[in-house]
Amino acid sequence: MSHVTAADGVSECFAAASPGLEQLVAAELRRLGKVHSVAVGDTEPGGVSFRAGRTGLYAANLHLRIASRVLVRIGAFHASEFHELERHAARLPWREFVASGQPIAFRVTSRKSRLYHQDAIAQRLLAAAGGMAAPEGDAAQEFVVRLFRDECTVSADASGELLHRRGYRRATAKAPLRETLAAAMLAGSGWDGSAPLVDPMCGSGTIPIEAARLARRIPPGIARRFAFMDWPGFDESGWERLVQQARERVLPRAPAPVLGSDRDAGAVAASIANAERAGVAGDIEWRRASISAMAPPPGPGWIVTNPPYGVRVGERRRLRDLYAQLGNVARRCCPGWEVAFLAAHPELERQTGLEPEVRFTTENGGIRVRLVQGRVPAAPS
Predict the structure, then answer these.
(1) Check: CATH 3.40.1190.10 for 179-218+227-375?
(2) Residue 376 in contact with residue 331, Cβ under 8 Å?
(3) Contacts of 137 (CB under 8 A, 6+ apart)
């Protein structure tokens, strides 16, 4: 058995990510490592491993825009029988991660292992931890348990609620885009906040809001709680210093214009309310307008948007005109601009006429989608 939390206070950690976004999360961690004690390890399906001290762990939760959660790996061992699982689990440092009286929850996956009954595995681990199960809705400390070929890895969830829950989005339009995926679209497109950005199908405003917060250097986790804040060894003064340092880096305004528009008045109203809660109401111009009425600021800049996917065949036929219109308006109004959008079907991508290239492939709402990007030809001189 190995304990993967080191005695020197440096822990083996894992930044979980949606499939296809792992390389973007690795790039985030490398940037974080230039400032904080974060050493990036291997990228694997589902996330990126890294080593971090206490401050680095806190900083990862505070600053990562694309990761879905941060885990601390507390033990790894072989277990093909329940008595092995119980014996090794009893030696894990559970109390470093559970406050007195706090309930415990387990999220178990098992593949190609002799121990496969997830509820039975969780029951044995709960007994070994000496904890109580979490009633529905209680704020439990969650542990993520993975068995693969009889090798068991146990990790403490340092984040709590998934990291896409920034705390600002209450008003939503239909099929809202997760904040982490919106941030991945911005990173994947190469937009860095210094050029104008337009989203002509903004829905509840997630892409423009994430863009404005990125441009102003507002950390995504600045206004929420994390599970590690309830750990017995939580360094509150260290956390407060980290947050204060982050606040001092925030810019007073976004350096370049950010625009969001939608033909639906309810979507625009939701966007405005969300932007106010996100602290970027003054950084985004909102309009109720169709794509054909798009009026971008002087460029070049980026169009980044999430159009309907056309999951059903009949819908794809109807959406051809929408995608073609996106391409036509971009050529008319945005010469030299980059256009990046999520799409589920190459047939619809081609309707834009932009010859887009694939930046990444992932899932959104159970639908396999890819971020594609093309450059609008520059206007003739």
Answers:
(1) no
(2) yes
(3) none
